[in-house]
Amino acid sequence: MSTVQRQLLMSLALALFVALMVSILIFMAFPLEDWSILWEKELFNFPFLLVIPAFLILITAGFGIGFGWYWKAQFQQISEALFELEQGRFSGRFDNPSGEEMILIESRMEKIHRQIIEQTKLSQRLANEKAEDLEKRIQEMISQERNRLARELHDSVSQQLFAASMLMSAVNEAKEPSNDSNDVEAKQLKLVEQTIQQSQLEMRALLLHLRPVALKGKTLQEGMQELLIELVQKVPLKIQWKIEEFEMDKGIEDHLFRILQESLSNTLRHAKANSIEVLLVQRDGFIILRVVDDGVGFDVEESKTGSYGLQNMHERALEVGGNLKLVSVKEKGTRLEVKVPMIELKGDNE
C-alpha cells in the first residue's frame, strides 16, 4: 500500500469516527422525537442524514490525499538520497526539507557519506601501501636471487673458465710447431683459447647484469672509477677514462651510472673490442657521458627495434631530460653519448 492510499484510508476512517462521535453527542444533547425527520429534511436536494457525513468524508479525503502526496515526496527524497549514498555519491542537500526530522535525516546522511569517503580513502591507501610493499618485497627477492646466481656463477663457472684460459695459455706457450699438422693443431688450440677468453667476457657481462653495482652513497665519479678499476683487473681489455669532478642531482647520477653499466655490459658481450674509452665531463651547461669502443660495430637501426638494453638506456636518458646518441660503424667501433642539461633552480617557487 502506497503512502497516499494509506493516508487516504486513515483520513476516511478518522472522518467517519468524528462524524459518528459528533452525531452521538448532538443527539444525546438534543434528542429527537422522530428520527425520520433527518431523512425527510433535505439539503442541496439530498437527505440531511447523508449530506453531513458526505461533506466530512470529502473534506477529510482531500486532506488525506494532500498529506499523502506530501509525505510521499519527502520519502521519495530520502529514497533517492539513500540510493546516491549506496552508489558512493551524495548531493548533500534535500530539495525541500521541512521539519526538524527531515533536517536531522539530511544531517545524518551527510555524516554517513563523509564516513564512507574516509573509509574509502583509507581502504585505497592501504591497498596502495600493500601493493607497494608487495612489489618492494618481490624486487628484494629478485635482487637476492640475482646476487645468489651471480655468486654461484662467479665461484664456479667463472673460476673454471679462468682456470681453463690459463691452462690453454700455458699449453700454447709450451707447444712448438714443427710441421703442418702441428700448425693446424696449434691454430685449433689458439681458437679454443680465444673462445674461452670470449666466454670469460660474456660471463663478466652477465655478472654485471645480474649484480649491478649500486652507488650506495658514493658520487657518480667514485662509482665509475670503482667499476672501471674492477673491470681493468678482470677483463683483458685496455680501458681508459677521463672523469671530471662536479656536482649533480642524485637522480641523474643513478641513471647515468646504470647507462654506463648497460653500455659496458653490451661492449663486453658483443663488441669484441680491444679498448674502451669512458668520458664524463661538464660542458656548456650539459653533463656528457661518452663510451667509445673499437669493436666490430653493428647496425643501429636494426638493433633499436629488438634490443631491450638500448631501449632501456634511451628511456633512462629521457627520464632525466637528456638524450642519447648512438653511432656505430661495422668493423670500426661504437660510440655512445648521453647529454643531460644541468638546470639550476633559483628559489623555491621555481
Would you spell out the secondary-structure blueprint of this structure?
Elements: H1 3-29, H2 36-40, E1 42-43, E2 46-47, H3 48-86, H4 99-174, H5 180-210, H6 220-234, E3 238-243, H7 250-271, E4 275-283, E5 286-293, H8 300-306, H9 308-319, E6 323-329, E7 333-341
Parallel strand pairs: 3-4
Antiparallel strand pairs: 1-2, 4-5, 5-7, 6-7
Helix pairs in contact: 1-3, 3-4, 4-5, 5-7, 7-9
In short:
The protein is of the alpha+beta class and 350 residues long. Helices cover 67% and strands 12% of the residues. It contains 9 helices and 7 strands, in the order H-H-E-E-H-H-H-H-E-H-E-E-H-H-E-E.
Helix-strand sequence: HHEEHHHHEHEEHHEE
Identify the strand order in the major beta sheet: 3-4-5-7-6
Beta-strand fraction estimate = 5-15%
CATH level-four homologous superfamily name of the domain at 216-350: Histidine kinase-like ATPase, C-terminal domain
**Average pLDDT, to the nearest integer?**
77
CATH class descriptor of the domain at 216-350: Alpha Beta
Largest β-sheet summary: 5 strands, mixed
The number of strands is 7
Amino- and carboxy-terminal Cα gap: 68 Å
Q: What structural category arises from helix and sheet content? A: alpha+beta
What are the segments in which pLDDT stays under 50 over at least 5 consecutive residues? 345-350
Structure description:
With 350 residues, the protein is α+β, with helices and mostly antiparallel strands. Among the domains are: 3-89; 216-350, Histidine kinase-like ATPase, C-terminal domain (Heat Shock Protein 90, 2-Layer Sandwich), CATH 3.30.565. 67% of the residues lie in helices and 12% in strands. It contains 9 helices and 7 strands, in the order ααββααααβαββααββ. The protein has helices spanning 3-29, 36-40, 48-86, 99-174, 180-210, 220-234, 250-271, 300-306, 308-319; strands spanning 42-43, 46-47, 238-243, 275-283, 286-293, 323-329, 333-341. It has a 5-stranded mixed sheet with strand order 3-4-5-7-6. Strands 1-2 form a two-stranded antiparallel sheet. β6 (323-329) and β7 (333-341) form a beta hairpin. α3 (48-86) packs parallel to α4 (99-174). The chain starts with a helix and ends in a 9-residue tail after the last strand.
